[in-house]
Amino acid sequence: MFKGQPKGLFALALANTGERFGYYTMLAIFLLYLQAKFGFSEAVAGQFYAIFLAAVYFFPLLGGFLADKAGYGKCVVTGILVMLAGYTALAVPASGGLSLVLIIGALTLIAFGTGLFKGNLQVLVGNLYDDPRYASRRDSAFSLFYMAINIGAMFAPSAAKALTNFKLSSAGLSYFPQLPALCHQALDGTISTESAVWMQGVMDEMSGAEGLDFVQFSQYYLDNLCVSYNLGFSVACVSLLVSIAIYFACRKWFAHADNGSRKAKGTAVAASELSLEETRSRIGALLMVFAVVIFFWMAFHQNGSSLTYFARDYTETSVSGIARAGFNIWILALLAVSVYTLFGIFQSKTPKAKLLSGVATGLLWCGALLIYLGFPEVMPIQPQEFQQFNPFFVVSLTPVSMAIFSALDARGKEPSAPRKIGYGMLVAAAGYLIMVIASVKLISPMILQGSPSPDRVSCGYLVGTYLVLTFAELLLSPMGISFVTKVSPPQYKGLMMGGWFAATAIGNYLSSIPSALWNKVPLWANWTILLSLCLLSAVAMFAMLRKLEKI
Predict the structure, then answer these.
(1) In 3D, which of 322, 300, 323 has the Cα closest to residue 435?
(2) Is the separation of the CB atoms in 222 and 183 below 8 Å?
(3) Beta partners for 330?
(4) Max CA-CA distance within the chain?
(5) In the chain, what is the straight-line distance between the N-terminal and C-terminal CA atoms, in Å?
(6) Which of 253-257, 481-485, 543-547 has the lowest mean pLDDT?
(7) How many of the other CB atoms lie within 10 Å of CB of 243?
(8) C-alpha distances out from residue 396 to 122, 338, 463, Å
(9) Which of 208, 202, 424 is nearest to 317 (CA)?
């Protein structure tokens, strides 16, 4: 799995892991922060979220254009520094009319810095595999690179939760997902009698609420909650500093892949001698793929918006039994590592190595069991915790997918990258079929109008959806990135990688549609729209397959 890969891959992957940990820690609480800070409705918060995500993935188009001229390494370093400035501004608690201006400015810096960093770092990875010694390992390399991204993402929701709980606990408060909205209603004087009774019961359980009336408590609670989110944003600053340290410490491992070096420039000129017709054909093929994947990202990036709303309003607020294991990040981490040691038993070439892999697997499972045995019978859960399942599944399933495709390759039957993307769209549709089934008998949000549902479903529906969407992601995202680095005309590699992210940006912006429809259509209808778009995209992909495979 890791054997035969250039050292530069691991350096670049680790640098990206640190950056992604900070980004996903921020993203896990971003939408909740907007609602707590400003009292935004689901539609407004979802629109804000979608615009930010679109900007994060649109700026790589500009970043790629600049990198083709100035060099990938220069843009990567500049991007890290710009992101650091943005996260620092976001971590500063602010109040009054300027707070929204500060937040918008911080998010703009983060988006622009990501645009300089994200795509160009992946171009550096792809350039490592222009070397004939490593060319055959390009697809597997991007699977490993994608896995590293998700290691950072896997720990992010738990980091955000820990900081939120720590700050609230120090103020004598506890976290309830629906409480911020009710606090804003109390401040506006629009809270209903039924909600006020529930809120009073919550206040009676918190030492920090003693002696406070509804209005005082609401302001006190929201102030402390928002500061806890600011602490979560500060995590990104620390993780970026770690990324900077890794990047510079290991730079010599991948310096030859940067077109800012004399050697790389010479290689690029030699490789760019494509005919005008072939260049146009390659760009046309990439644009067709970009058009299709827009709808995958629209469906996939519901994790921070409509799926979070579903977790907050329709999913159990506590778990018992074996389900508790899924909401402890340390158990998930041990299980994820054990997948790799388990594979080591079968892939190791010596009896000693097989034995060590087996012992390591057993110890990891024992560690997970010991943690599990210390759980209370019932564990409370928070909406943002569901976001750790997707990266956990990516990390755990990457060796499985690599083994499957390696076996198919050995038989000469491995699907092409475009075919995998088509399969990914079909699998994504199956993920939203689970949500349709979960939602058919639930009260519509347009009836609840912001109140939590009296009937809540098992967390298994959301976990199952994230599992299926992860299968789709593994088929589509790393293979799509690999396809871009393989097919792009050499002189436009940065720009074409930016195009991939621009397509992602459009999909991210369109991800606001289910949030906008949240209080306007039946719950099942929202998921049906996403399911239908995934199916139509799969049909379009398979219709273009012959031309894409020829390219």
Answers:
(1) 300
(2) yes
(3) none
(4) 78
(5) 28
(6) 481-485
(7) 25
(8) 22, 9, 14
(9) 202
Quick: pLDDT tens for 207-250: 999 999 889 999 999 999 999 999 888 888 999 999 999 999 99
Q: How much of the chain exceeds pLDDT 70, in percent? A: 96
Alpha carbon distance 378, 317 (integer Å): 10
Instruction: Say whether 305 sits in a helix, a strand or coil.
Output: coil
DSSP result, 411-455:
TT-PPPHHHHHHHHHHHHHHHHHHHHHHHTTSPPHHHHTTSPPSS
- In SS3 terms, 23-86 reads as HHHHHHHHHHHHHHHHCCCHHHHHHHHHHHHHHHHHHHHHHHHHHHHHCHHHHHHHHHHHHHHH
Residue 226 token pair: 């928002």
Give 484-508 pLDDT, tens digit per residue: 888 888 888 888 888 888 888 898 8
| Fold topology of 12-249+257-328+375-550 | Growth Hormone; Chain: A; (1.20.1250)
The backbone region for 421, taken as left when phi is positive above 0, alpha when psi lies in -120 to 50, beta otherwise, is alpha
Write down how long the chain is. 551
Q: How many CA atoms lie within 13 A of 372 on its CB side?
A: 18
Query: What pTM does this model have?
Result: 0.76
Residue 267 vs residue 26, higher pLDDT: 26
Q: Say how far apart CA 44 and CA 60 lie, in whole Å.
A: 25
Q: How far apart are CA 333 and CA 325, in angstroms?
A: 11
Smallest CA-to-CA distance from 463 within 338, 325, 371, 340 is with 325
Could you read off the pLDDT of 266-294 as tens digits, one per residue?
444 444 467 888 888 889 889 988 988 89
Q: What is the DSSP string of 441-495?
A: TSPPHHHHTTSPPSS-B-THHHHHHHHHHHHHHHHHHHHHHHHHHHHS-GGGHHH
Cα(339)–Cα(481) distance, integer angstroms = 25
Comparing CA positions, the residue from 498, 363, 445 lying closest to residue 64 is: 498
CA angle 415–417–420, rounded 5-degree value? 65
Q: Give the whole-angstrom CA distance, residue 29 versus residue 164.
A: 9
pLDDT, residue 366, reads 97
Residue 350 dihedral angles phi and psi, to the nearest 5°: -120, 150
Inter-residue contact 402 to 143 (CB < 8 Å):
yes
* Gap between the Cα atoms of 64 and 495, Å rounded: 4
Instruction: Give the pLDDT score at 5.
Output: 87
Is residue 64 within 8 A of residue 124, CB to CB? The reply is no
Q: How many CA atoms lie less than 13 Å away from 167 in the CB half-sphere? A: 18
- Cα 147 to Cα 10, 109, 144, 254: the distances in Å are 11, 26, 5, 19
